[in-house]
Amino acid sequence: MSSDRLDFIDTTLRDGNQSLWGATGLRTGMMLEIAPDLDRAGYRAIDFTTSTHMAVTVRFHKENPWERIRLMKARMPRTPLSFLSTGMRFISWETAHPELMDLSYRLLVRNGIERFMVMDPMNNMKAVIDSATAIAAAGAREIVGAVVYTVSPIHDDAHFAAAARLLAAAPTINRVYLKDPGGLLTPERARTLLPALRAALGGKPLELHSHCTIGLASFTYAEAPELGVQTLHTAVRPLGNGSSQPAIENVVANLRSQGGTVDLDMDAVGRVSSYFVSLAAAEGLAPGVPQEYDMRYFQHQLPGGMIGTMRRQLREMRQEHRLPEVYDEVERVRRELGYPIMVTPFSQVVGTQAVMNVLAKERYANVPDEVIRYVIGRFGTPPAPMDPNVRDRIEQLPRARELATQSPMPELAELRRRFDARLSDEEFLLRATMPAEQVDAMLTAGPCREHYSAVASPVERLVSELSRRPDVTHARIERDGFLLDLRAKQPGVAEGTAT
Questions:
Q1: What is the DSSP code (8-state) at residue 201?
Q2: What are phi and psi of 284, to 5 degrees?
Q3: Cα Rg for the chain, rounded, in angstroms?
Q4: Contact 386, 350 (CB under 8 A)
């Protein structure tokens, strides 16, 4: 084991929840109940949220994401909360005006975010550095720049080392992490790539964030400390494995078997893990399980959640038998579009076009707006040149000309004129980037519920959820001689009878 101190980032609440439970599995009260033990565990930071997660908080749970950050920080005074930024975008995938991004960073810091991880899906290091500069001006304590890993003919060790070297030279970036969204990093490749990155970084620390999608990450993590990695991203076992990160329990056991010392409170970690076992059982959520090795994945590189969605959609059209064709077409489309990294939004861009190409009589007969935006440069410059025939065909579409003339995100002053001047900055930013009806529903629902019991009965959970729905004034449930009749005594308060 390396003599450098090894520490850990816990991904349970953000990436674990996103990878296994579609980012919708955890509500604020669920997080708050276990926050003190997460704070005791000794993690370097908690991978906590993104602007996409903030939108999910509003859309699916009708909870205020700013309030969630404040409440969690109050319960976790010692451990920094981390925010993953994907560049000059906040909630929407349209590029935001720099003034809007500056405001978002200031509000995140003000509400309790101390650490920022910054990535660009194109590995545009200038974009990462520009974002880091704005985040530093907002008062962040720590900024971690990402080098996003993928496999293609052009993504060799020298390519990634050059990117790391640019980040190392940026004074606003404190650390760098290799982000492996597909879980594609093998131990063999790690033995050349990780030392190359460490050398390129000089004295800046290196972190590793990988996924268990095809079962490789746990093997790579076992070797990573000897190869120059100082921080590993892990989740507790119920929210680890699957398409999530390696389980901290297994990672620690492997490292200790090699003589390594891990400075974590494993009793606190155990309590966190047990809590999520109970929560998953109570909520009907599937915990992560170890994955089988799938060599085919190196060709299509589609995220696990996207494969499930694609299979369901094809099944609904009675075309599930064509999934192998789609995999082949994904490879072809990715090559034609210049080998984009298969991470959001580019995995969706490539995958959607591949499905359309397979189902249509002619390839590229139908091209969605996001593919057009990609081709006309709205997401940056692809890693490799696009196929000129495909590029020209898409650029000549009438819709391409329409999208090319669309105005960029308006300036902050113009946006503010569209809304009530009395709005708080937090509410203004949500309204500027989300549908009004979703923000209205969040405000109507009231403050976040701060408590959760994983052992509550189904009836208790039903009453609890109904109490958060002021639009529901009457509920009647009959089953096998059981009758539950609930009526709202006043908005948000339920009373009723059961027989």
A1: H
A2: 70, 35
A3: 23
A4: no
By the 8 A CB rule, do 19 and 209 touch?
A: no
Phi, psi dihedral angles at 84 (to 5 degrees): -95, 120
Q: Mark the ranges of the chain whose per-residue pLDDT is less than 70.
A: 1-4, 304-305, 456-465, 467-468, 480-482, 489-499
At 2 the pLDDT is 53
Nearest CA to 7 among 46, 48, 43, 47?
43
pLDDT of residue 289: 95
What distance in Å separates the CA atoms of residue 148 and residue 160, rounded to the nearest whole number?
Answer: 8
The two three-digit tokens of residue 120, written as one number: 């660009």
322 CB neighbour count, 10 Å cutoff: 15
Burial class (CB within 10 angstroms; exposed 0-12, middle 13-18, buried 19+) of 368? middle
Side chain identity at residue 135, one-letter code: I
| Among 397, 326, 310, CA closest to 360 | 326
pLDDT for position 483: 75
Place of tokens 């959820």: 465
What's the rounded Cα separation, in Å, for the pair 154 and 268? Answer: 44
Residue 235 one-letter amino acid: A
Contact 129, 280 (CB under 8 A): no
Predicted confidence at residue 490, as pLDDT, reads 56
Report the alpha-carbon distance of residue 115 to residue 330 in Å, rounded.
35
pLDDT at 492: 47
Burial, 427: exposed, middle or buried (Cβ in 10 Å; 0-12, 13-18, 19+)? middle
* The predicted structure's pLDDT at residue 403: 92
What's the token pair of residue 202? 């000089």
Q: Residue for token digits 């050349």? A: 192
Alpha helices per DSSP H over 41-186: 51-61, 65-75, 98-111, 125-137, 157-168
Outline where 261-345 has alpha helix (H): 266-283, 297-300, 304-316, 323-336
Phi/psi for 246 (5° steps) reads -60, 145
DSSP code of residue 406: S
* Nearest residue to 51 via CA among 380, 377, 307, 426: 426
DSSP reduced 3-state for 496? strand
pLDDT of residue 325: 95
Task: Give the integer Cα–Cα distance in Å for 434 and 436.
Answer: 6
The three-state secondary structure class of 49 is strand
CA distance 137 to 132: 9
- pTM here? 0.88
Tell me the β-bridge partners of 429: none
Question: For residue 296, which of 270, 326, 320 has the smallest C-alpha distance?
Answer: 326
